[in-house]
UniProtKB/TrEMBL annotation, chain A:
Organism: Chelativorans salis
Pfam families: BPD_transp_2
Regions crossing the membrane: 12-32, 39-59, 65-88, 95-113, 152-169, 195-218, 279-296
Keyword Cell membrane on entry: yes
Keyword annotations of the record: Cell membrane, Membrane, Transmembrane, Transmembrane helix
Membrane topology term: Multi-pass membrane protein
Subcellular location: Cell membrane
Main location: membrane
Protein name, as recorded: ABC transporter permease
TrEMBL record, chain B:
Membrane topology: Multi-pass membrane protein
Subcellular localization(s) per the UniProt record: Cell membrane
Pfam families in UniProt: BPD_transp_2 (PF02653)
Bilayer-spanning residue ranges: 12-41, 61-79, 91-110, 116-137, 146-164, 197-215, 282-311, 323-343
PANTHER family: ABC TRANSPORTER, PERMEASE PROTEIN, GUANOSINE ABC TRANSPORTER PERMEASE PROTEIN NUPP
Keyword presence, Membrane: yes
Protein name, entry field: ABC transporter permease
CDD domains: TM_PBP1_transp_TpRbsC_like
Amino acid sequence: MMELFDIFASAGLWAAVLRIATPLIFGTLGALLCERAGVLNLGIEGIMTFGAMIGWLTVYQGGDLWAGLLAAALFGGLFGLLHAVLTVPFGLSQHVTGLGITLFASSLSYYVFRLAVPVASSPPTIEPFQPLRIPLLSDLPLLGPALFNQTAPTYLAIAAALILSYILFRTPLGLAVRMTGENPHGAEAQGVNPVAIRFGAIITGSALMGVGGSFLTLSAFNSFFPTMVQGRGWVCIALVVFASWRPGRALFGALLFALFDAYQLRLQTVVGKAVPYQVFLMIPYILSIAALAVMARRARVPQALMQAYRRGER
Amino acid sequence: MRFERRAHRPLILVVLAPLFAIGAALAIAGFLIALAGAPVLDAFWQILKGAFGSRLGISETLTRTTPLIFTGLAAAVAFRARLWNIGGEGQFYMGAIGVAALASGIMAGWPPVAAIPVAMLAGAIAGMVTLLVPLGLRLRFGVDEVVTSLLLNFVVLLFVSMLIEGTLKDPLAFGWPQSVPIPEAAELPELMARTRLHAGLLIAVVAALLVQFVQARTRFGMQSRAAGLNAAAARFAGVPLGVTLVKVACLSGGLAGLAGAIEVMGVKGYVTTDLSPGYGYAGIIVAMLAGLHPVGVVAAALFAAVMFVGADSMSRGMAIPTYIADVTVALSLLTMLLALFFTQYRIRR
């Protein structure tokens, strides 16, 4: 029984939490930004897959790791542009368009990957981001390896949460985004261009999703394989609700989720034989569903979420 | 330039929309094939030849069409009522494992007349129950069923994986994770000798006609369409929304469960975790391409199956990854959404 608690005392657990959380932080922030402007982006799962693929491929073809990250952001933004064109001026169903983007982006990433890399028995690898040891601080017990011995994109993710929080709640631009998500007609009456705001939010948000995906291949792991995103995008969509559309809480939610995930991974080794490993792997998905059920009625949804905005049409 | 809503949808545009969508998707796919440095027209010719060029090709295409009709119908009936069932993949696997568990457990020695209908019913019920979870969460807690049904897909796949590595594991499969085979009595008869084509195709077509009848001619069909068109107005007119949605979920989940059951009973005979190459997700595309029309689903499912089977055979001869089929089918969903838009709106300067 004590073993179940001993896991919490291991530095490895806490170091893993931030690592597992990083793609979720990027993805959740991206989805949150889109939804704050009133557009649900279910393209996230496919955009993360494409980000993982293109980031890896860029480095595999001789690019710099940061070039890989940038490529993931760029292509994420391009898929975001596609989603924006279909859902904003045309006002198509955000549910179905997003799913279409996911199916398109993920199958396209497998297609491009197979074209670039012929079938091999073991997938080719790259040299991923190395942890940045922050001197002195990383020697602290428990906290040191957890907080101050991570790869650069992890620090970037935490910074992104703080920056997004600042922009959304402390700048005129953020106010315009939130107004567009609450009431685009009212926003327009105040001189805000809801169409431009929605385009900007979806493209930027999708770029963040792409970066989140690329973390999987550029830092957490060193090669790409199909279905590696494993529903992380859908978890992010659930985390946005859990976070009540606030970046700070999104950061907290992603970390909490990652803690459960890291814990179940270690739990498997402790009670491995008694319980089938699939039960542990189910926990993250079931937790996401449970979080949705608890938060759905309490959360304050952006009022114009999933409402198409056409000028002069109610 | 702006868009103006049409007073009514011209029938000619409604009929042309899927053809335009497929044409546009194929054009973009052609561009991707050209990028890979292969001759485009030749590649498309190889796809057609692979799907229709031989007895085996035709039978494979029709075999692939069967589950797509079911998952397409499942998505179509749900979407009509604005129940966003994206969990077709999970319901497919629950149907499959439901049949495997029941048939291998108790059906040894049953006559086929009893075994086949009972097995199909078991698969359908397993699919229903799977969809009632996200619907229950929506009705009780107000949770958007899109995300929950998507997340459930992963839970179900892990559950199936657990069963076929545990309780239902086939001890004779040399350690491969697969379920015990179903008894012969529960297997569907084959339609073409020495191929994988089975009677499931006929059941699928009959199901499409039945769903068409239910939607067009019954009170439940009218209520479910009303719930989708305008939930508030439907409630005002006395449609019991909750009950209607539960019935829709039973129909939709049941159809997706049947897809999995029939795949096991007709093709494989047992369950593995790669039983479905994404039939549940492809069903959403099939439903949209069909304009949510049950009979159209059969045609749209055939298109998707042609792409999958044809691309498989094409990629053996050319250096084009078989994923081109998935890309084309996914693209046709996006182009179809656009085409549908122009059946409802016109461009005004």
